[in-house]
Amino acid sequence: MLAEILIFVPSIARFRVDFLALRLEKAQIASLALLAAEDATVGAELESELLKNAEVFNVVLRRDEVRQLVLSSPIPAPIEATYDLRMAGPWELIRDAAAVLWRPEERIIRVIGNPVQDAGLLIEITMETGPLRVAMVEYGLRILFLSALISVVTAFLLFLAVQRLLVGPIRRVVRHMTAYAEAPEDARRVIAPSAEVEELRVAEEAMASMQTQLTNALRQKERLAQLGAAVAKISHDLRNILTTAQLFADRLEASADPAVARAAPKLVGSISRAVSLCESTLAFGKAEEPPPQLKRLPLRVLAEEVVEGEGLAGTEGAVVCLVDVPAGLVIRADGEQLHRVLANLVRNARQAIEATGQGGTIEISGGEDERDWWIRVGDTGPGLPPKAREHLFEAFQGGARKGGTGLGLAIAAELVRGHGGRLELARSDADGTEFMIRLPKSLGAGEGE
């Protein structure tokens, strides 16, 4: 529409100027015919015919500074407006053309212009606007029809271009997405980029890369699921076998043979670690941990239970565990799950200290601020190696000691996340390691006290 307006408006203004210029030219020819006569006079009938052919009421020529009424006839109405084509600019011509179209009533106007072939200083005519308006309307309709035809052809070509360059490729992408969603493991359904538009091609390449990665991930997930099921079965059976072996190993400690008595504790320790590994593998292999049953509980009592359960309640051993929790501190948590988290952290700290062959201290402290309850578990062990820090809470990658699997920390972090909190490594250096547990005081959406 904007293009049609930009074409139509100047065109109709130019047509009006050409129409008036043609009237001036006809009037000049009629005037010259009169002036060419020997006595410069003609009869009334011939003068009327000349004016009728020129389609004007009168003609005035200015030659040699003399204004001369060459042809004249009665004017049916007063002259309403005068238009000087010599001085009109583009905006004036457009305005005057619009005035002719919007005023259908008949008017008498005076038009001034330059004579052709320099036949005088100016020529002036008086005429009706009716024929001008009729001619302009007919010309405008032709212009509109032609522009509409061009617009239809252009729209059709644009439609074909959009269908080929945009709609077609987008439909193709949608079909590929639908087909891929039905069987994402099938690598044959990964889209092959072929769009001609650069932006669509980039999108297809990104989607192809994403589909390839997802297909590989699904295949790996399926293989890991099968492997996990097999490992779970093996761990279950192996745990039963090791439990039986542990019972027999316990009897070896009472043997009268000094060599057997010395070897028995090492054998019992190895079997115990193997049983613990099987139990951790089975626990991690569950589809999901049950949601925590949040209840109010005293943190100090829970910490003391953990210390007692890990055999660190006394002060006779090389490893000492201290509890620095206010007696009145009450938190909201799942007691069983939080017990597992703290027991895992205390057990890891004890094993790290024992691995040095020297004594050490483990400390469980707790407190609260405006937003969270916090629990800190620190030790004076050797600290975590750099490799263990990189994948600390990832299963089978974050083991801190030789032979460790990292399952304990992965499960502990998952349990804390189930509470809406987070388990973080606060510090680990030559002076020891410190873990921080933060449990939010605010309840999640839809939960109550």
From TrEMBL:
GO MF entry, a single one: kinase activity
Supply the InterPro entries for this chain.
HATPase_C_sf (IPR036890), HATPase_dom (IPR003594), His_kinase_dom (IPR005467), HisK_dim/P_dom (IPR003661), HisK_dim/P_sf (IPR036097), Sig_transdc_His_kin-like_C (IPR004358)
Q: Which UniProt keywords apply?
A: ATP-binding, Coiled coil, Kinase, Membrane, Nucleotide-binding, Phosphoprotein, Transferase, Transmembrane, Transmembrane helix, Two-component regulatory system
Q: Which EC number(s) does UniProt give?
A: 2.7.13.3
A Pfam family: HATPase_c
Highest taxon, organism lineage: Bacteria
Q: Where is the Histidine kinase domain?
A: 233-443
Enzyme group, top EC level?
A: transferase
Locate the coiled-coil region(s) and give their ranges: 200-227
Q: Where are the transmembrane segments?
A: 139-162
Catalytic activity of the protein: ATP + protein L-histidine = ADP + protein N-phospho-L-histidine
Key word Chloroplast present: no
Name assigned to this protein: histidine kinase
Organism, per UniProt?
Answer: Paragemmobacter amnigenus
